[in-house]
Amino acid sequence: MKRWFLLVYICFQIIHNGYGQGGKYLGGELETAYTQELKKGWMLNGKLYLKMFWFKDENEVSEESDEVADLNNLRLSFTVARQHSPFFSYGFGYLYGGQQAFTGDFTPENRLFQQVTFSQLVRGKARLSEQIKLEERFFESGNRMRLRGKFAYEMPLQGKNVDLGEWYLLGVYEPLFDLRPEEERNALLYEHRFQINLGKYTLKQKKIEYGVGYYLSTVSKAGDKQEFWLVRLGIFLN
């Protein structure tokens, strides 16, 4: 476990220090999801989340801009997935959402996605999972395609398994790839997302997660970056 988190920390430092950053933002995320088991190993998941960021670069904005949310993200998604085995699943889904940009403009989005997820036990205690998701994103200004990776490491903090009333630690890293032609995108690998969460099963079919996240995004062809720091709360029901 220590080696895994050390590797994540080293990658974070390399990515964070390897680029010149532009604006820095602070914000929060609220996420809730419900999963319903269906027949023959299929399941339906509904998820709703809201992100809000405030601009904090004192050299570029006025004091008034710190008092209102400069970037709002609202997403509602539905995923149908099949658990082929305890260590492999596949699925597809639909997402609708919108973003209120820093300029105040609202950008709606429709999204289709397909995903496969692999997982394995590490030393019979922790769980390492890898997910590959292909996303087709539809905007009024044009369509985009994105590839999203997700690496998650979940470890019980009390005993060998995560039981009712016990805590666990969850680390997540997501690299995002823009699959549009080179002349249309800022970079192929244009965003890195890190999360560290502390979670607890409060009921048999309910868990709560508290965490912090960090995003580093490429916002121009010149390689300009923006940093996003957030605190998050997640509530999940099965």
Descriptive tags:
66% strand; 238 residues; eleven-stranded mixed beta barrel; DUF2490; mainly beta; DUF2490 domain-containing protein
Describe the structure.
This protein is mainly β and 238 residues long. It has a domain at 44-159 and 173-184. The chain has one helix and eleven strands; from the N terminus they run H-E-E-E-E-E-E-E-E-E-E-E. The chain has an eleven-stranded mixed β-barrel.
Give the SSE map.
Blueprint: H1 2-17, E1 21-37, E2 42-55, E3 71-85, E4 88-100, E5 106-122, E6 126-139, E7 142-156, E8 167-178, E9 189-203, E10 206-218, E11 225-237
Parallel strand pairs: 1-11
Antiparallel strand pairs: 1-2, 2-3, 3-4, 4-5, 5-6, 6-7, 7-8, 8-9, 9-10, 10-11
How many runs of DSSP E, i.e. beta strands?
11
What gap, in angstroms, lies between the N and C termini?
27 Å
Q: Approximately what portion of the residues adopt beta-strand conformation?
A: over 45%
CA-based gyration radius? 19 Å
Helix content: under 10%
Supply the number of helical segments. Answer: 1
Contiguous uncertain segments of 5+ residues: 61-68
